[in-house]
Amino acid sequence: MPDYQLLIFDWDGTLVDSIARIVESMRVAAEQTELPWRDDAAIKGIIGLGLPEAIATLYPELDDARLIDAFRRRYGEHYNALECQPSPLFEGVGEALEAFRSQGYRLAVATGKSRRGLDHVLAGRGWLEYFDVTRCADETASKPDPRMLQEILAHCGVTAERAVMVGDSPFDLRMAHRAGMDCVAVGYGAQSLAELLKESPTLAIERFDELRHWLDGDLNRQSREVELYV
């Protein structure tokens, strides 16, 4: 396995503990637009998709453009109000990202958020210039289409073999596979590791700092077998 130059991260459920806020915001949007609620598992199952794709998955029967637009607005308003106090980073994320930067890795974000939504949460952290590049679903193609990864690679001048995608949803892992890229599944976000292992990730972890150990060579990086920490 070649040494990586570029680390690409999903946002919600991978770097920040925001899943509960997404679930709440989806439910508030449904209530305010008089649509039926969906259960937690259904909502967590769409996390990672762009918002239009997420709504279409939750409400496949919905074809009223005005109602869809109202749902999107209500979701965004409620979520952004919650993010006045930024969602916390998962344990070990801040320290690991700083270590990765000091080691010379290039860092990127590939997210199902809108550009407006991502910029809002990055600004809340003072991170608007933190990453080398970020890509959002509404300015490219939604996951699992590999286009946002391909655009990140082109921006950074890095080949797929020298990059790795880190995420908490099947959409992240499928996107990486379609881009010809290694991927790391994290089991503390929207989906369990048992579900993510079905997507054949290169590595599966339960804590973010385990990624740092792996990249530092504490595990056998020559193996293509998934290392599952428990």
From TrEMBL:
InterPro entries: HAD-like_hydrolase_sf, HAD-like_sf, HAD-SF_hydro_IA, HAD_2, HAD_sf, PGP-like_dom2. SUPFAM superfamilies: HAD-like. The keyword Signal does not apply. Its cofactor is Mg(2+). One of its GO terms (biological process) is DNA repair. GO terms for molecular function: metal ion binding; phosphoglycolate phosphatase activity. One of its GO terms (cellular component) is cytosol. This is Putative hydrolase. It comes from Metapseudomonas resinovorans NBRC 106553. The lineage of its organism: Bacteria, Pseudomonadati, Pseudomonadota, Gammaproteobacteria, Pseudomonadales.
